[in-house]
Design a protein that fits this description.
- The structure holds two protein chains of two kinds.
- Chain A is built from seven helices and no strands.
- The relative contact order of chain A is 0.15.
- Helices cover about 20% and strands about 30% of the residues of chain B.
- The termini of chain B are far apart.
- Chain B folds into three domains: about 80 residues, Beta-grasp domain (Ubiquitin-like (UB roll)), CATH 3.10.20.30; about 90 residues, Beta Barrel (Elongation Factor Tu (Ef-tu), domain 3); about 120 residues, Rossmann fold.
- Chain B is an alpha/beta fold.
- Chain B has a six-stranded antiparallel beta sheet with strand order 9-8-11-6-7-10. In chain B, strands 15-14-13-12-16-17 form a six-stranded parallel beta sheet, sandwiched between helices.
- Classes of the chains: A mainly alpha, B alpha/beta.
- At the A-B interface, helix 2 and helix 3 of A face helix 7 of B.
Chain lengths: ~130, ~325
């Protein structure tokens, strides 16, 4: 099971263009998030470089690339934001920007759907449920 | 098998190990996180060998040029002497050779050093007085054959160090300084790229160094400098900058005053506001921001939202200690 999963994930990551694709996506994705009045208050007062590095780790995971994220990390990392009122509407907004970013990079819809599914699988951990 | 030297420790690194593996195996505690080259927690610096290309992937270009690398991605190709990034390197001695008043608030201080010192204009060093009192100042010049360092020191109302420099420090006095640090400096390459530089107060010091460095290295893209202060006392080198703008076709200079007094020949408003409203889209630009922390952080975000890539924004926020 683990074996097949890894093979499938590696394929998605490669199909998307690997680490270079993540680099291209981070710049667009983080800009969309910061410009969105619905969610940008969650990103005030954070170091932009550190934040961009986190976004990169997140996108690497969503792209099916190598990562060490656990559900527990996701919970811990978003605890503070949940206390600030982070809910499904904000998660949806981020998902919207993820899709928009990939469309801007001309990623085929079938691959976008796979990325969205991986990102979606973190929803409950991110929202601390 | 290769050797990694960190401070006094010499550690063996096997062929299949990364620098991080080898250090952890030797029970040396260094910060690390993802072990995938993403989080950059295990950032280190090579003091001799050029790090392998794969160990520098994803790092800011100025850090790459200073031989920074990620320990978790580094399979050494030769023996390496390494250091953690926040460790201040060796101390060296320098002597005051010139002190010049640039404005009522700002003094140009030129030091001469004997030992070897590698630096880029725009980086900073810590200057230390005889009694140990230490402050960080940006370097306003590129390395020269005469081994001098130029600083622009603004008098702060309760600044112990700056008041001492302004009132008491005499040419001939010896100071101690640390190695140059910081990643806000010019790098050659992409010479057609437009540059936007915004500084407040003595934030001009690094920018002045960066501009001269860029021009000396043949930068052909437009260079726009916005220098701001509340009142005229905080602006300096105005004539020199205006003269440079007359002489050099691709250099543009805007002196900005944000206080209430309106002076002719100066733009009214805050430097970053004027700069950002004048430039609609910063996609493809290289941006340098130095000075007041609030200005730097706010402008960094605005510049990014206006299209500048985060990897093209170089910032140095001046934190004040009294």
């Amino acid at each position: 099971m683990t074996e097949t999963q890894e093979t499938t994930n590696a394929t998605l990551f490669e199909q998307l263009g690997g680490a270079a694709a993540v680099d291209a996506a981070v710049d667009i994705f983080y800009r969309k998030v910061l410009a969105d009045y619905r969610i940008n208050r969650f990103f005030d007062n954070v170091d932009m470089e550190q934040q961009a590095a986190k976004q990169k780790a997140f996108l690497t995971m969503a792209f099916g690339g190598p990562h060490n994220y656990t559900g527990e990390d996701m919970r811990k990392g978003h605890e503070r934001l949940v206390r600030m009122g982070l809910d499904d509407s904000h998660f949806d907004a981020v998902m919207e920007h993820l899709g928009g970013t990939l469309q801007e990079l001309n990623v085929p819809e079938a691959l976008i759907a796979q990325v969205a599914a991986i990102a979606e699988s973190t929803r409950n951990d991110v929202l601390g449920r | 098998m290769l050797n990694i030297t960190l401070g006094e420790s010499k550690i063996a690194c096997q062929a299949d190990e990364t620098v991080l593996d080898a250090l952890l195996k030797a029970n040396i505690q260094i910060p690390y996180g993802c072990r995938q080259g993403v989080c950059q927690s295990c950032l280190m610096r090579s003091l001799d060998a050029t790090p392998p290309v794969t160990a520098q992937a994803g790092l800011k270009d100025t850090l790459q040029a200073q031989n920074y690398f990620l320990a978790c991605r580094c399979h050494p190709e030769q023996d390496m002497k390494v250091a953690l990034p926040d460790r201040q390197g060796a101390l060296l001695e320098a002597c005051v050779v010139k002190k010049q008043q640039l404005s009522p608030e700002i003094i140009r201080l030129v030091l001469q050093y004997d030992a070897e010192l590698a630096f880029f204009a725009g980086q900073f060093v810590n200057l230390q007085r005889f009694d140990g009192l230490m402050r960080s100042y940006s370097i306003a010049n590129s390395p020269q054959y005469d081994k001098t360092l130029e600083f622009h020191i603004r008098r702060l109302p309760n600044g112990q160090f700056s008041n001492w420099v302004h009132d008491e420090l005499e040419p001939g006095t010896k100071l101690t300084l640390t190695e140059a640090q910081g990643s806000c400096h010019y790098l050659p390459g992409r010479t057609e790229q437009p540059l936007l530089l915004i500084g407040t107060g003595s934030g001009l010091a690094p920018l002045y160094g960066i501009i001269n460095d860029a021009l000396a290295q043949g930068h052909t893209g437009d260079i726009h400098l916005y220098h701001g202060s509340r009142n005229l006392d905080g602006l300096y080198l105005i004539d020199e900058m205006r003269e440079l703008a007359r002489r050099v076709g691709n250099f543009n200079y805007t002196a900005c005053l944000s206080g209430e007094v309106i002076e002719t020949d100066y733009r009214q408003g805050r430097a970053h506001d004027l700069a950002l409203t004048t430039t609609q889209n910063l996609k493809g630009w290289r941006v340098y921001l130095c000075g007041h922390p609030e200005m730097v952080n706010q402008t960094k975000r605005m510049a990014y939202l206006k299209g500048a890539s985060l990897s093209d924004i170089y910032a140095d926020a001046f934190l004040v200690s009294h």
